[in-house]
């Protein structure tokens, strides 16, 4: 399967270019300019000259997709009330600038002042920006409608310690003003305090709303074994799930897409499923074993030919999986389940155990067994399900340390339940394998958006870019300085 590829485009943002939530545009940074590029034609639709105050860009983010203009907003041909409003922010450690993808006249600048910007994102809607200050002194929510803001003191974490309730945008935040952890819940938009609960935790590690907005899961320190607190949406304790273990306990927590499962990944390699319909009782426990003996599990091993081509070979169990041992003195040992990720339809889940950092485990929730294991030649850096196709998975690895001569030939690895075997997709040799990143473009989410007028582009970016890629599964890959588009011809049909 040879994908269709675009030319390589320049980018100066180390974290890469970002597709819009509707899959129509790519936002990238080139020096002091931000570019919006059409996914189909590669044509640059808009160039934004960033202000001189943005000296070292650290953040580039799109607003959540799907929010429509309020009913009382003035209507026009270019901005009808049914048009989803897409905004994006660009920020460094001192300044946040927000732009509208469709309204070239609209711009907002947020200068947080003392404390700067440690982390920034959109708040409960595209009309809010949430800023966490340096040293965790406060979290500030700025309104882009009237420039008002609300300060909340003593947030415990940057990204994993807060969340918005799906559907209503109630704000939940972990704080630690003194010696105890607190769960604070605030009303949407006004951020009026609703509830503050002292938590019976040793050292709370994070919180996550369930996808249906009914539950808040808060997990404790791994020194407390497996310990998760379940609260209702209004802040009342429902129950605590506790499970003893030898050594460190809980490392990773994830909800299934429908909210029926809360899944716990441990430092001991266990993956535990709690069922929300059974009062969060454990229904299954899976383990990452160092030896795979089940004949029904496909174990695919990456191999490298003498010509530098990468492919997979099916290995018949039993198979001993390669492991990485951390020194006893390592304060952050490479053990435990670091990744739990569900497919879009919730029928498959992929995991990664750091003891086997080159292996990707794909589990079937129908059979409750490993469906496949991908064994890579180098460490797995990122794993991403396609956002709307439930059977398509992408894997990105670092440079192969055992093949120095080919370590700069980057590849992206794709697995589908419908294929006879996984694929290794070569990308441009201009990209550096050690810094490779990957992002799906979800064209199934594309909607009729407000018009973005095209404009003349640089010669190096306009030549030979007019032909649009036909519909197919698309993605972008890149490193710290470049990126390119790729499209699979027909990812549901294996090679003949």
TrEMBL record:
Q: Identify the Pfam families for this entry.
A: WD40
Q: Name one GO biological process term.
A: microtubule anchoring at mitotic spindle pole body
Q: Which domain of life is it from?
A: Eukaryota
Where does the record place Polar residues bias? 1-18, 449-459
Region (Disordered) residue ranges read 1-24, 449-471
The record's listing under InterPro entries reads: Centrosome-WD_assoc, WD40/YVTN_repeat-like_dom_sf, WD40_rpt
An example GO CC term for this entry is:
microtubule organizing center
Q: Which residues cross the membrane?
A: none
PANTHER family according to UniProt: WD REPEAT PROTEIN 8-RELATED (PTHR16220), WD REPEAT-CONTAINING PROTEIN WRAP73 (PTHR16220:SF0)
**Name the record gives this protein:** Uncharacterized protein
In its UniProt entry, the species of origin is given as: Orbilia brochopaga
